[in-house]
TrEMBL record, chains A, B:
Record protein name field: Maleylacetoacetate isomerase
Keyword Isomerase applies: yes
Family the entry assigns: Belongs to the GST superfamily. Zeta family.
Gene3D superfamilies to which the protein is assigned, alphabetical: 1.20.1050.10, Glutaredoxin
Length: 214, 214
């Protein structure tokens, strides 16, 4: 498998964690999102993924896109260890936590959105950072409520084994810390993220140890 | 089943289509997103879904949130008619199309984001509408490329039966038209959306025929 990735992309980071949790080897192909206006906007990459976003996974001669779709694919093709629980209601809960991050927080703070804010709407650096922290605050607060208010939360987002929701939570907390967000009202989120950080699969997926890290 | 819904929410619209495609009866509970500052921000609804977003589905004594997680749940609990194909690579494709809409387009144009633009960043009505059209343009262009460039596209997004991707596409095209977006460069997207519009399951899910439509 070949993963088109950027060290700091949190969508790519999710897939790296999932691949590691499943013990799957892959070749990392770096796509630089900033240099030269972004390699993801150049024809070579757009031929692979017309959406021009990372990650993309090559497997069985096909190109797969969208981080959550990729993780579900890995789950179906390599079921063990499972990243989703067995019961439908529990699977729905884990997917909802993952999507509360992947749909409600991450896209609003994506690089291209921040660039639009400054270039098209003339937002200042301060306004851009306030935007970033606002959506992380609102979004992770909702995730905290989902986690803290449910007995199914364990050492990880769901029970005591890492799964899809943790694959999403850890990169989002990484971003939050990078931008200096106040996370003091989210003790469950932090407890789980810090617990994950102790695992090899999460450590090897971290931005700072990627081959393209700067 | 009880669906907490708002007639114009495109996330709720997706779930309404999926419920109809599967022939499942449900009770619609309207949550007004505008009146009185938004019923979704009031304690009664936040107790149900702390993220304060619609839709939420009540089933088996549990509250499920996040539209795609809800549709996957319906797929697992009521497998027929299937909204996802059988093969893992095909399932990944359908999920990727769905997420290209549900993650990359919709959240950036969500009501609360538009409100932040005008209230916090002082965006004009014109700038707000340009923002809206920009992200629909970029996002649906990517979806068009995913559809037009793949032989698996049929009368619907994947083959000749409606599925998860169509549940996402139709509400997004509805929004695009409502905001006067130029969709002339997206013939495949339009062809499929118009084909869906002929089906009873899609017609009954449309915003204008909901009990809370204005």
């Amino acid at each position: 498998m070949k993963l088109h990735t950027y060290f700091r992309s949190s969508a790519a980071y999710r897939v790296r964690i999932a691949l590691n949790l499943k013990g799957l080897d892959y070749e990392a192909v770096p796509v630089h999102l900033v240099r030269g206006g972004g390699e993801h906007r150049q024809p070579a990459y757009l031929g692979l993924n017309p959406a021009g976003l990372v990650p993309a996974l090559e497997d069985q001669g096909q190109v797969l896109t969208q981080s959550l779709a990729i993780v579900e694919y890995l789950e179906e093709t390599h079921p063990q260890p499972a990243l989703l629980p067995a019961a439908a209601l529990d699977r729905a809960r884990v997917r909802a936590i993952a999507q509360a991050i992947a749909c409600d927080i991450h896209p609003v703070n994506n690089l291209r959105v921040l660039q639009y804010l400054t270039r098209e709407l003339g937002a200042s650096e301060e306004q851009k950072n306030a935007w970033y922290r606002h959506w992380i605050g609102v979004g992770l607060q909702a995730v905290e409520a989902m986690l803290a208010g449910d007995a199914r939360t364990g050492a990880f987002c769901h029970g005591d084994t890492p799964g899809l929701a943790d694959c999403c939570l850890v990169p989002q907390v990484f971003n939050a810390r990078r931008f200096g967000c106040d996370l003091s009202a989210m003790p469950t989120v932090l407890r789980i993220a810090d617990h994950c950080a102790g695992l090899e699969a999460f450590r090897r997926a971290a931005p700072e140890v990627q081959p393209d890290a700067e």
